[in-house]
């Protein structure tokens, strides 16, 4: 088994339908979920300075860490997510 991070991209104001879909997805993956991490607005720091992070279609809104056999299985889980813009799926590497 390997750990994968699903990076959730995009935000829109949640409706009842959106929340219901997310709750169902989280329930469907509870057996492989290691952790869910939601993010609030923050700051982006670069050599250009510091700017506010706006919650829009390109913002990272959270991470879901899952433990599954391989990348293909992680992608299948991501494909069933009610994502707003996209989900990036990456395997966790040891540091």
Please report the number of helical segments: 2
User: Approximately how much beta-strand content do the residues carry?
Assistant: 35-45%
Kindly report how far apart the N and C termini lie.
Answer: 17 Å
Radius of gyration: 14 Å
Shape: globular
Give the helix/strand class. Answer: alpha+beta
CATH fold-level name: Alpha-Beta Plaits
Any low-confidence stretches, pLDDT <50, length ≥5?
none
- Going by CATH, what is the homologous superfamily? Dimeric alpha+beta barrel
Describe the fold and architecture.
The chain is an alpha+beta fold. The protein has helices spanning 16-28, 71-79; strands at 2-9, 33-38, 43-46, 49-52, 60-68, 86-91. 23% of the residues lie in helices and 39% in strands. A four-stranded antiparallel β-sheet has the order 2-5-1-6, with helices on one face. A two-stranded antiparallel ribbon has the order 3-4. Strand 3 (43-46) and strand 4 form a beta hairpin. The chain is globular and about 40 Å long.
């Amino acid at each position: 088994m390997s750990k994968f991070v699903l990076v959730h991209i995009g935000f829109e104001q949640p409706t009842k339908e959106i929340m219901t879909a997310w709750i169902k997805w989280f329930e469907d993956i509870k057996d492989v979920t290691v952790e869910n991490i939601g993010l609030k607005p923050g700051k982006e720091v670069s050599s250009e300075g510091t700017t506010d992070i706006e919650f829009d279609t390109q913002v990272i809104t959270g991470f879901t860490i899952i433990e599954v056999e391989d990348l293909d299985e992680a992608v299948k889980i991501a494909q069933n997510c009610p994502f707003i813009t996209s989900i990036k799926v990456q395997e966790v590497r040891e540091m």
